[in-house]
Structure formats: C-alpha cells, structure tokens
Amino acid sequence: MSRTSARARTKGATGPTGRYALPAPTRELTARSGDGVRFPVEVHGRESDPAVVLAHGWTCSTLFWAPVIRELTASGHRVIVYDQRGHGRSPAAATPMAYSTAMLADDLCAVLDAALEPGERAVIGGHSMGGMTLMAAAGREQLRERGAALMLCSTGAEHLTGEARVLPFRSERVRRITHRALLGSSAPLGPVTSLTRKALAYGTLGPDPDPVVVETTARIVHACPTRVRSAWGGVLAGLDLSAKVPRLDAPTAVVIGTHDRLTPLPHAHRLAALLPACTGVHQLARRGHMTPLEEPETVAEVLARLVRDHLAAAPARTAAGVPADARAHAANTASAASTASTANKANKATTANTTKKESA
Fold first, then answer.
1. Using N-to-C axis directions, what is the helix angle for 194-204 and 211-222, rounded to 10°?
2. Domain at 3-310: CATH architecture
3. Domain boundaries, the chain
4. d(CA 258, CA 206)
5. pLDDT tens by residue, 37-79
6. Using CA atoms, how far apart are residues 140 and 160, in angstroms rounded to an integer?
7. Among the listed residues 115, 199, 208, 205, the one whose alpha carbon sits nearest the alpha carbon of residue 154
C-alpha cells in the first residue's frame, strides 16, 4: 500500500483538518525493531534543530501529535514521531499474545537508533501508553544515553483498571472487573456517529470539549483496528511498571488533566514521587485524558522548556547530520595526529644522524 493511501485510510474519508491535520514530514526513514519488524518513522522540522521524540498512546497514531508538532516545529524544534505497533502504518503483530511492554520498549529504542545521529540526545515524551513505553524502556542503554529529558503525559504505571473512572462504580473491585472487560473488548466501534462521539468525549476529554477536538479524537480512535485495540487493551489491563519508574533518572516532567477519567490525578502524583528527578507536575485545568489534543500549546511548551533546560547545550548539527563539534574534533584529532607523525619522523631522523656521528 502506498504512503498516500495508507495515510488516507488512517485519517478516514474526512480526517482531521486545520491544526489537527498531520503536516507532511520533512523526511521519512525506517526503523527495525528487535524482532526484525520494520516500521516507518517521520521527521518534522529542520535537521539543525534540537530533537523531540514523541510516542502516542493506545488506539491513536502519529495524527494524535499533529497540533503539538505544529507548535514545536514553528518554535525551532525537530520532531520525530512513529506509530506504535499495529497502529497507523506500523505492522500488526502476528498474534495478540505477541504484544507486550517489552515490544513497546524495543520499538522506541529502534526509533532512537534510526532517527538520531551517533551521540545525539533528545527530549523524549510519551502520552498514555506512550508514557508507559518510556517506563518500559527504563534502564535500556538507548534511553539512558539518548534521553536528555523526558515527559510523561496523562499516564500511569499500575492499577489502571481499578483507578479509572470511565465507569464510575464505587467499588474498586467492580471498577477493576468492568474496566478490564472494556479495555479488552473485541467489539468493533463501527462508523463514527453522534453516539460514539459522545461516549469518547465523556471517557477521554474534559468538560465542555471543543467540537473539533471531539471529532478529531473520534476519527483517530475509530481508525485503530479492533484486534489491535483489544490486544493492547489486554496488556494495559495487567500493567505494572512501578518498579521501572525509579530507573528513569533523566529530568522528567509529568503532565495530567484534572478531569482525566482513564489515568486520574493520583497516577501523576505517584509517578512524581517515584521519579528520581521530577521537574514538576503540570495540571491542566478541566482537561481530560487527551491533553495534547485539548491543550497542545501547553504540552508543547513543557517539551520546549525541557529542551531549553536540558538540551540547549547540545552540539549543533551540520547539513550532513553530523554534529558540528564532532567534525571539529575529528579535524583536530587528524591535525594532531599529522603533527605528531611529522614530529616523530623528525625525531627519528635526528636520532639516526646522531648515531652516525657517534659511530664515526
């Protein structure tokens, strides 16, 4: 399937428009994950700008980041996005049992290897399951060496089903059972209707959402294949990455909507308590779970601030993609080696002449 037809299928016949339409990438490349599966990666913005890598959440795609991409590229950032396995243009796993948090981490590490130059660092952010991707990758060499700073947005590490408030039963046990069934449901969503718009707005957005955000959310979520949605939902239902969070030792910002029903506020506070270098919890008033769609300016500013505070001193990149100081270092090293070689030859010649004179 061609890139154009694949994107058209992901967007739907009447996909997101305006700021919510995904801009054309500056370039595309292919990443290869640990299991050998190849998937596309999009790069937006100028090659010379500092890098921000973004991982989307459950039932979404790169389209989800469109307004944040527009904000960041306009303010001088290079944004790298990809589809989680089975979402958007990323190939689905052969069986539902193949999906795992390890797969999330493998794919992220593959993107970092493919999209960043040797020695280059980036600010890395994840929303919902994308945040869980960062947690799953905690301790991995790629994340430790590549991640100058991190953002965990509208996410949690454990107890997702018991603490969710989509189905607001008083009993935690009942909430756990019903939300587990909801996450793992294999019932098709069907076409976007007024009913599904209202249901998704209730479950994922804050009070009085922008109708355009409601429509965009519905189009993105409905585009996720049913089997993929169900399989990843099963992974999320049993999620426990709490032991991984303390291994995220890079400076990390936490973002949460005050009216998030899927990963409510207590998740953000627990993450902040577990993180060794939390830079703060950013609470977005009257926002739900889809914070990057509901308030993209604020989410982009959190990422931009992490760039300013923790990536501003990163080496500039040349047009060829090689850090400028790396080229200078290589040139200086070559010059020094040449000088040393010349000096060594001169010393040898002097020693030889001295030896001849002494022999005479």
1. 100
2. 3-Layer(aba) Sandwich (3.40)
3. 3-310, 323-360
4. 8
5. 999 999 999 999 999 999 999 999 999 999 999 999 999 999 9
6. 24
7. 205
